[in-house]
Structures are given as C-alpha cells and as structure tokens.
Fold each of these.
Amino acid sequence: MKIRKLQSGEEVPLDLLLLADPSRRMIEQYINRGECFAAEMEGKIAGVYVLLATRPATAELVNIAVAEEHQGQGIGKQLVCDAIRNARLSGVKTLEVGTGNSSIGQLAFYQKCGFRIMGIDRDFFIRHYPEEIVENGIQCRDMIRLSLDLD
C-alpha cells in the first residue's frame, strides 16, 4: 500500500469521504482548504484522509475513511500514522480530530491511536447537518473533540 498526496486538479474520492461525513456541502467546504491524501492498493484508492491547518501549529484530521471492502485491515491506523507524520513535517504541534457522540467505534479508534478527549461541541451536528444522523441506535448530536500532542 502506498499513501500519497493528491495533486491540485486531481479528482478527490468523494464516495469515500462521504463514508465518514454524510454532508457533501461540509466536505466541499474543507476539501478546498485542506490537503487530501489517498492510500492506494493495486491502483485503486482504498482509503483517504484530509488534513486541514486550523490555527498556528495546529491541524485537524477532518476526514478519514477506508473503503468498506478494506476495513478491518489496519489501513485506518496507517492513515492516522501518515497524517501524524505529515503534520509533524509541516511543523504542527497539535493534531486534532472530531467525531460524533454516537460514533462509538471511532471514539475507541482515535483513543487507541493516542488522541485524548479535549472537549465537546454541543449540538454541532444539529446546527450543521440538515438531516438527523443516527448511529448505533444513538442520535448524533455532539462533536467529541480529541487532540494529540506531537512534541
């Protein structure tokens, strides 16, 4: 597997990004401001992440997704490790990520990758998404914010 930065003008794998974020509008808002990286296997994109500079020395992993047929193979972990490496190379000191309160698997995943919960953006998904999101039988309302110190 090879992970590479997508070049300007190269088609972004929107179908994969929509696995992690159901709002095309939200994706379009951050995709043009961030850097998109793709994991390729046998000439096909198996995973993707978007890294976005947010504040001085801070970046956010705003989207990370793995194609359904490749989930459970460690690709997500490799994508996070690559995001950490690229953030460090860019001089980032703090890497942040956010996920929904109903995203039980993602909360566990990010914590296993070393991220720690730093706050909650209450009603984020109510304010920013027109349709109700339900995962694991729980309404997705709040954004759980996590961070990782890169020093």
Amino acid sequence: MPNPRRPADPGRLPPLELLAGFEAAARRLSFTLAAEERFVTQSAISRQIRQLEDALGVPLFVRGHRSLQLTADGQRLFKSCAEALAQLRGTVAHIRGRERREVLSLTTTPGLASLWLIPRLPRFARQHPGIDVRIDAELKPRDLQRDGFDLAIRYQALGGIAGAAAPPLFAERLLPVCSPRLLRQGPPLRRAADLARHTLIDLSTRYQNDGMAGDMPTEWQTWLQSAGLPDLEPASVISFNSYSEAMAAAVAGHGVALGRRPLIDGLLRQRRLLAPLGGDGGENASERGYVLLLPAAAAARPAVQALAQWLLAEARGTTAAAAPRRKRQSTP
C-alpha cells in the first residue's frame, strides 16, 4: 500500500527554510548546533525537520539517545541540499562582490600598454583585489571627461597639461635594437654607418594637438641627425603606425628598429632584442616621454588615487632599473 505520508505531487519542493535547516542539522549531526548556526532555538530546528519529514513522507534521521544519524533518504537529500546551497551562496557572493568592486578606465598608447603596463598589471591586481582596470589602447587622444576615462598615460613632449595634474612617469631614450638572429645572419652592425646596409624599421603615426593634425616626424630621421649621419640611406625601410608592431617586427628579425627605453627593457633583459652599437652614438635622449593625466573629477576617488600612486611607483622603479651604472674606478 502507498505511504499515506507521501505528498500528492512528488515534484513539489518543500520550503527553502526547511531545506536550509535540514542541511545545517545533517552537516553538524546536531539539532542544537544547527540551531546556533541558524540563529533559532533547538525546538525550532526540530519542528522544521518534522515538517520536512511530513512533507516528504519519509524519516530523514535516526534519533538516538545522544546521537543523530542520517537515513539513506536523508543522505541523498543532504548531498543535493549541500550542493545546491553551495552554488546559491557562491552566486550570491559573486553578485554582491561585483557590486562592491570598482572598475577604473585607463587610456594609453598601444606600445606602452603592451610593453610596459600589461606585464605589470597582475601586481596591481594582487595588491588591490577590489579594483578592476579596463585598458583602452589607442593612439588618438581621448576626451577623458566625455568618454568616461578615469586616468590617461599620454605620450608627448614633457610638460604640464592645462586643467589637469600631469606628473611625468618617465622620459624615453632611443637606441637602435635588433634581434640576435639578425646580428648572426645579417651584414655587420658595429657602428652607426653600418645601418646603410640594413633595413630600418620606422614608425610613422598621425597625431592631433590643439585641433591640428599632422604627421609625426620619423624617429630615424631625428636619431640619424643626432648621430651625425643625416644623409644616410638604408638598404630599405619598413614603416608601421603602431610601436608594438614595430617591435614585433624587430624581434622577428626583419630589420633594425629604434627602441624606446624603458619600454623595451624587458625585451633587452630577455635578449629577444640586442643593442648592437653600444657607445657609438647608440643611446640618445628624446624630448618626449609619458605623463600621467588625472581629470579633476576622478582624482579625488580613493581607487583612482591607488592606481595613480601605483603607476608612479612602478615608473620610479623602472627609471631606477634603466639608469646606467657607473663604472667603478680602480684605486691606485
């Protein structure tokens, strides 16, 4: 004969409160401990378990004098309840945690983003787990207020920007770089005049300043002028409008590029790029560099301040690591 305690609709779920009380009692194997966890009385937990057993039509516990054991049905229900409640708790925690997180938008150049910023961002995430950073890598300067950006790292002639705090991150220094394979397989490259036998990888970009657009002077033209070789004609020239693509071409061995220190210091340390000319007019200071731009509306926010201070600290460490070491003088 059918069990008269079984419900008419087998698929109907009992109230969630009863299932949560049962899960706590089954996990602790104690009505008293479950009551403390649920902030109710022991008698309330007992009533919930009885109501759940009546609703299901089966006993869930074997009640001893001072012991509590699950029945076979109780074990099956406990497994399902534990999994379902754990998933619910995880989903709720994720939703609540996401609402407490702060997302910052930072715009910068593709070259700085790929070569300098992105390799360092995991350190910021570990130090500030409640702050997410969204990177916009774009050559065209953004209107920070209109486009909703909290910070910007701009590549420009060093100096302030009206209406915003623009502390410098670092200046740049230029030097010819190429892959080790090019040095092994290509023509000799021991002095600046040897560049005439090589392909030069150049950067040609469009810039916009005060509403006026124009072409950025080619980097090699400026460097060769300072090296005393303004009329040097290379074997060929490959031009890119993205610095990260130019460096990728240099790493692949397609020619000699002008590396921007400290952006390429990681590639130099890894020996994916080499500086073949050494002191032969090799490294020249640039008039340009990178500045940190903070709109006044965003600068007062603690999360923005945290990211700005971290960027400045990383820049100081980068500058210190890139500083040339003085040779020790031997004592007579």
Amino acid sequence: MDSAGAPKPELRYEDLAGMIEHSAVRPELSEEHIRISCEIARQYRIAAVCVRPSDVDLAVRWMEGSGIPVASHVGYPHGDDTTPAKLYAARDLIRRGAREIDTVLNIGKMISRQFQYVEMELTQLSAACHEGGAILKVAFENGYLTQDLKTIACRIAKRAQVDYARTSTPFGPAPYSMEDIALMKRLLEGRVKIKASGGVRTLDHLKQLRAAGVERAGTIHTVPMLESWKTELDAQRKAS
C-alpha cells in the first residue's frame, strides 16, 4: 500500500527488463559472443546492449530494427584519455550508430581536486553526445573516491548535464553499494539518473536497485535474472 492507502501497482516484465544493459565489453570476448549478446538483447527486450568500440559497427547492424540502442564506451575504464581523444571517440561512435556513450570521469584529476578540468571535460562530452542524438553516462568509480569527492562528482554531473551517473565499472576496486546509491540519489535530485554496475547478479539485486531509485543496471547476468523474473510472473498469474 502507498501513503494514500492505494495498492502499489504490480511490477511488469518490462519494468525490470527495461533497466538492464547487457554488457559485452570484456577483452577476451569473440565476435560470436557479441552476436549472441545482441540476440539476448533482442529476445529479452532490454534497455541496451553495451559493446566495445570496435564492435559497434557489427552490433548496430545486428540490432537494426529492434528499437534497442547500442551503447559503447570512451576513456574506459579509468577515464585518463585526453579530452580531445574522448571527444573524437564519442563522435566517431555516434557516427557509427551508437546511441549511448559510457565514460569514466578522470579519476586522477578528481583525486587531485582538479574539478574545473573534470567539469569542463564532462560538459564538452555531454554537449557532443546530445548534439549527436546520444545520451552520456558517467562512471564515478566510487571505490576510488572519498565521501567529499563523491559529493563533488554529483554536483559536477548536474552542472555538466550528463544523463546518467554510474556507480562504478566492472573493472574498478569495488562494486556498487546501496550506501553510494542513496547518496547519489539525494544529491542528484532527479536531475541525473542513476546506473548501477559491478556486482548486479540476481533478480533480487535488480529489484532492490529499482526500489532505491536506480533506472539502469549493467550486467552480464541478463538471462538468468530475466528467466527468474518470467517464472515469478507466471507463478503470480497462476495464483491470482
């Protein structure tokens, strides 16, 4: 029941499937694995499939007509490429058909408290993505940041008008935490959406993230999570 006494609407399949970005960015993956990842995205009707930059051309072709965007990354996984290199890479990927760009804020500059550098870079990347019809997601890599730096990163994300602030990457020192998500939600004030990644493995994780206000979750565990969700929904229908 909500605060007004009305029953909460039941979750639908698409409520959880629509959170998932299926990740296919590990360095050892073959092109066949990328093709299978695209098939998973099509079959399960998820939010996006995220591939390595050199796989974008293939993924865009394989996802054609699906309505599911291809995502890729620049300055990954540590955010330490130069700003012009990141801008070129983002524009190149958008030209090739990527509609979502993930990047990482420059961790070394953030820790060095070079906040103007970080903000200017993200502002330029945000503008480049939006001009090209793409969205920008920025990983904070919270495992490297102190509490005050996480707070400043949220303020920078809002001013730079990025679309999603991401807790972490799978390559960082720590997975997402619910404490960090609560902090980000409070500070981002709904002006920047939240993406969780690193450790999203089960249906319960996905439900917990949704309840906390997370709108996207990066994972390689798409199939078992959504098969479990289908089974649960089937059981609910039979019981009703």
